[in-house]
Amino acid sequence: MYALADCNNFFVSCERVFRPDLWDKPVLVLSGNDGCVISRSNEVKALGIKMGVPLYQIRDLVEKHHIACFSSNFSLYGDLSARVMSLLRNHTTRFEQYSIDEGFITLDHVSPAERKTYCENLVREIYQGTGIPVSMGIAPSKTLCKVASKYAKKFPGYNGACMIDTDEKRLKALAKFEIGDVWGVGRQTAAKLAALGISTALQFAEMSESLVQSLLHKPGLLTWRELHGIDCIDTSELVSKQSITTSRTFANPITTLPLMEQQLANFCDTCARKLRMQKSLCAQLIVFAHTSRFRTDIEQCQIVQTVNLSIPTSDTRELLSYMLNAFRPYFREGVQFKKAGVIFSRIVPEGSVVADLFDERDRTRDTALQRTIDKIRDKSGRNAILLATQLPTSKEQAAQVYKSEHQSPRYTTELSQVLTIRI
């Protein structure tokens, strides 16, 4: 039996931890450069504001309803996520973190009669320990856990934990659950099923296994089985990505090579860290930058360079060296670059690479050094150790690149921004 812990409106909840005055007020969090809405409190949802809507389209609503807006503060969100996940790990023999705000635990060590109460107590413990509200779904499969957690989040009567442990509860839950909201069912799949008159999860579950396999192939069949309570989805395989991208549209164009290199170095570092977290290596990287396609009054330029690595790696220093050597010859000073990014592809597991007799790098030493750097940064913060190319620019230059007019302090990761209480 599994339980899924899903943090409620996670980014908004993180901002509210240190702002109790906003607990029952409308709050939203914006994407990079304060562009679009990426997290909403229930009060904002009630106003009809959709996820992903640009801020400029809802400014009147923000002013009318006194909505508190926050720029993304991923340093804070990542730290609070780690604290929530740490508490979950203490309550299970097996833990799988699925995303920044979701994690699965097994409940085999808890008797069936005590599982719901156990999870209700865990929800309270997480809230008391971190200030983050959590909803838990309990079920024999991970997809059913997702269904149960949605009900726990929607209906307060569940006390934060909904359990689907009988066939009667399963059928009742699926009958009222839209097929498009089922984990693993995308828009195209939902549209294909809608054409057959399938609108609920129960209708999908009542389809024959052979029809599901012929129509939706293996992914759809796995989801169908999961809705029948058969555990068959390995989340570790889902999390491992076949490509990793970090990119950004800049608040104002970048026209100098040092500033552009700093941005690309940070992108490369982020991608490499994600690569190591999923225990993978990449054999190809792509670096790109381009001017605004909507500006006809400026010089247009587009840079796209692909680097194929003879030996796959996840070492930040090595990847950064390849990337900058490929990018530098094509950069033109003075050109107004509006967007840039890095893509890692041809990703393979760590243990699948055969050593090269003619490899000039000491990879044992490089791996040990990279692990040490990661440990220090995990303990002391991402900026504890930086490569020379990543050295921060002036505050004026940072303001030019990133727009974050509603940034909250890094309460838990920056010593100078620790909350001060005056009595």
Characterise the protein shown here.
By secondary structure, the protein is of the alpha+beta class. It has 3 domains: 1-138, 2-Layer Sandwich (Alpha-Beta Plaits); 166-236, 5' to 3' exonuclease, C-terminal subdomain (DNA polymerase, domain 1, Orthogonal Bundle); 244-392, DNA polymerase, Y-family, little finger domain (Dna Ligase, domain 1, 2-Layer Sandwich), CATH 3.30.1490. It is built from 15 helices and 12 strands. It has helices at residues 10-17, 42-46, 59-64, 74-89, 115-130, 142-154, 167-175, 187-194, 201-205, 209-227, 235-239, 257-277, 316-327, 363-380, 395-401; strands at residues 2-7, 27-30, 37-40, 68-71, 95-99, 102-106, 134-139, 161-163, 244-254, 280-291, 302-313, 337-349. Strands 5-6-1-7-8 form a 5-stranded mixed β-sheet. The protein has a 4-stranded antiparallel β-sheet with strand order 9-12-10-11, covered by helices on one side. Helix 12 runs antiparallel to helix 13. The longest helix is centred in the middle third of the chain and has 21 residues, at 257-277. The radius of gyration is 24 Å and the shape is globular. The mean pLDDT is 90.
Helix content: 25-40%
Give the amount of beta strand, in percent: 15-25%
Largest sheet: 5 strands, mixed
Mean pLDDT: 90
CATH architectural designation of the largest domain: 2-Layer Sandwich
Number of distinct helices: 15
